[in-house]
Amino acid sequence: MSQILGIKFTDYGQVYYFSSGPFVVREGQNVIVKTDQGMGLGKVVLTRQAPREDETGEGHKAIYRLANDKDMEAVTENRELSRAAFKFCRKSIERLGLGMKLVDVEVFFDRSKMVFFFTAPGRIDFRELIKDLVREYRTRIELRQIGVRHETQMLGAIGNCGQLCCCRRFMRKFVPVTIKMAKEQNLFLNPTKISGICGRLLCCLSFEQESYEEFHRQSPKVGKKYTTSLGRVKVIRSNLFKKNITLLVEGNEEREVSVDEWAEIVNKPPSEEALERGARSARSRGGRAPSKPARSTSAASKPAPRAPSDSSAKEESAPRPKPRSRQDQGAQAEDAKDAGKASAKETSGRSGKSSRRPRRRRRPSKK
After folding, report:
1. pTM across the whole model
2. Cβ contact 137:114 at 8 Å
3. 37-64 pLDDT tens trace
4. pLDDT digits (tens, 9 = 90+) for 107-165
5. How many C-beta atoms surround the C-beta of residue 129 within 10 A?
6. Contacts of 258 (CB under 8 A, 6+ apart)
7. How far apart are CA 330 and CA 348, in angstroms?
8. Where do the DSSP E strands lie in the chain?
């Protein structure tokens, strides 16, 4: 029975699966395989004696043969050639004045193709650069533009945690990372804290996202009020690692319950203990002195009448004027209006000016 081999062609590359065929291969050996790009040399990183249930041995290609010493010497020469091609390509970029950054050069095992990886902010016209490379190395040349994540994966770096970047160490495929993940994990939205060496959001934010989503589905929303067997409560905070929820119960007391306990107490009538706690809190609020005294309608609460003084007695003894009728008020208004007109005529007569504008005299026409 043949083995299923997991083979990597580069340290940061993906794992491709092949069948061992008639060969007996151990983990750590180098093998020659036939790919769509030509012959390639890879390293066996894992072996399985039997295929998985979702995999069948018939779908895997068999390896070509085991690598020998001559093949390893060819790999060493290809590495030296890639370093020389990197220097030559960088000089050509500077000479042509292209706005691109060369990252790495890969030389195929049989030297049938050379791939130059670069980053650039936009599209680059590198036709003259390809002519120089083809003239120098006489083989197929490919210039492949990559992103900043793949650049960090190829070069490697130390992350904020003090270890080698995840993309270089074990990650083979990039998953989308959004700012929503940082919000759901209650992280400070500081770009320097949640960004990696590449300047993008940390890839490790997606590692625990599934656990956070499962916890948020089971726990209530923070800041919302619920009716439980503990009475009317408000959710203050939740903790994923402890799997508990902090509630603010009646009487301004905090209480921690687990996620399982929350499922048992939510949407249930309050217990006797909760009712007693609510009554005590109501009594404590009612015992405080009110800001304004309440008015009472009883006769006992009314103040005793004061003895009238001499001045008040004189005011009461003086006769009050009778209210005028509507006819008297109208006649008085008409008298005031006539008096105003008369005063206006007197003032205009004194000044000697009439209210009308004088007419202009017509000039005699010249015949």
Report:
1. 0.62
2. yes
3. 888 899 998 888 755 555 554 578 888 8
4. 999 899 999 999 998 888 889 999 999 999 999 999 999 999 999 988 888 888 888 89
5. 21
6. 243, 244, 245
7. 28
8. 4-8, 16-19, 30-35, 38-48, 65-66, 101-107, 113-119, 140-145, 225-228, 231-239, 244-249, 253-258
